[in-house]
Design a protein that fits this description.
Helix content: 55-70%
Structural class: mainly alpha
Strand order of the largest sheet: 1-2
Shape: globular
């Protein structure tokens, strides 16, 4: 056994990346919150925040063990939920690791949190907070943790550890979560939209974003945090992390331009919502490929993802499902695009060592070998996620229930579910004094005084 010293640089990078990824969930809350109507902004943001609470607890208790524990029966389906339960056994560092096990636990916890939060965008403005919370508990346990095991848990023959079947048997490339995170969340969003049903007035009444400033702020935070998401997945401060960082920049920039070009040609105007959505589409697309393609390949991938997602967000109107905030159009479609394009664009030079080239895609002489592996991984996660998510959604529907009342949906889900409002729009009174205007609220005046004169 080789005893390694803890590498402070790698450890610092992993923990920094974990913090960046955790920041993405509040960023998602801003992004989603700005996209809904004003009367539902707090509820939308709370669905992201409760995901942090629920998944954070589950991850410590048994989630990490289900995702990264030794596969039960050696089948590659699910990790042993008791192996690392409570994380007590990880308090002692592995002598063969160059970073503390808990640093990796922290990093992957943030992946689990944001995956659950992503799904919430499909049911904005109409789902009860209790129903969403129950779904988050069940979906994280029964869908995300197993899928993460399939994709992220690698076998270690020396230690006798068996990991997930997609990573080790199919050998599909998913650098940071195109399948386990984005295809998984996007497919679950479709299942939820079908079970929960559309918002009142969907397709007949305008439901425009109420605050584009929040949307743009959220997109900026997502892009910022995503550098930890992708570059941190190298699990070291090295050349692979650098490649992933540059590819994340390149693909996202190209996707934003691609989306805006589609808007200009199709609608006549490039919009701020399009820019923000294009950013997210590029981030989603490059996630599985960040360590497998060249920077030029990242530009191509990002452009394709931006254009594809810009057209895909209209599918909900064609097929009649109310995916409120385009989780299907951006995360499912973007995840599929990024995952499959690895089969075409994987560059063997990304290994950094000419003597030991990495996987080659179709355009680099690798034939269809990697493409079919990518397709199997994508389809398997999609099928599993849809079936399980649909079943869980039905369980929630027939137990605590999904929908708030019609009156609460029309009057404002924030007040109904949280007894709060996102914005204080109480009447404003004015009083002129010595050439200055004082802005006062009704609380500054005696009860029933409507004169607007301060006493």
């Amino acid at each position: 056994m080789t005893v390694l010293e803890i590498n402070s640089g790698d450890t610092a990078w992993i923990l920094t990346s974990a913090a960046l990824v955790l920041l993405m969930t509040p960023g998602l809350a801003f992004f989603y919150g700005g996209m809904v109507r004003a009367k539902g902004v707090l509820n939308m943001m709370m669905m992201s925040f409760i995901s942090m609470g629920v998944v954070g607890v589950l991850w410590v208790l048994f989630g990490y063990s289900m995702a990264f524990g030794n596969s039960v029966g050696g089948l590659g389906i699910i990790g042993n939920p008791l192996e690392f339960a409570g994380l007590q056994s990880l308090l002692t560092n592995d002598p063969e690791a160059s970073y503390p096990a808990l640093a990796f636990v922290a990093f992957q916890a943030c992946f689990a949190i944001i995956t659950v939060a992503l799904v919430s965008g499909a049911i904005a403005d109409r789902a009860s907070f209790g129903g969403w919370t129950l779904f988050a508990v069940l979906w994280a346990t029964l869908v995300y943790f197993p899928a993460a095991h399939w994709v992220f848990a690698f076998s270690n023959e020396d230690a006798g550890v068996v990991g997930g079947w997609i990573a080790n048997q199919i050998k599909a490339i998913d650098f940071a979560g195109g399948t386990a995170i984005h295809i998984n969340a996007g497919t679950a969003a479709l299942a939820l939209a079908l079970v929960v049903g559309p918002r009142i007035g969907f397709g007949t009444k305008p439901m425009r974003p109420h605050n584009m400033t929040l949307v743009m702020l959220g997109a900026a935070l997502l892009w910022f945090g995503w550098f930890g998401f992708n570059a941190g997945s190298a699990v070291a401060a090295n050349g692979l992390a650098s490649l992933a960082w540059v590819n994340t920049l390149a693909a996202t920039a190209a996707a934003m331009l691609g989306w805006l070009i589609v808007e200009k040609l199709r609608d006549g105007h490039p919009t701020s919502l399009g820019a923000a959505s294009g950013i997210v589409a590029g981030l989603v697309g490059i996630t599985p490929a960040a360590g497998a393609v060249s920077p030029v390949g990242a530009l191509v991938l990002g452009l394709v993802a931006g254009v594809a997602c810009a057209y895909a967000v209209g599918l909900k109107y064609k097929f009649g499902f109310d995916d409120s905030l385009d989780v299907v159009g951006v995360h499912l479609v973007g995840g599929v695009v990024g995952t499959l394009l690895i089969g075409f664009l994987a560059d063997p030079a990304t290994s950094g060592d000419p003597a030991e080239p990495a996987v080659a895609g179709l355009f680099y002489g690798g034939g269809f070998d990697q493409l079919w592996r990518q397709a199997v991984g994508a389809v398997a996660v999609m099928a599993f996620s849809f079936v399980m998510s649909y079943i869980i959604a039905l369980i929630v529907k027939h137990t605590v229930g999904w929908r708030v009342s019609t009156a609460d949906e029309l009057g404002g889900i924030d007040l109904a579910e949280h007894s709060e409002a996102g914005y204080d729009l109480s009447p404003v009174y004015y009083s002129s004094r010595v050439g200055h205007t004082l802005v006062l609220t009704k609380d500054d005046f005696p009860e029933n005084d409507k004169t607007g004169v301060m006493k």
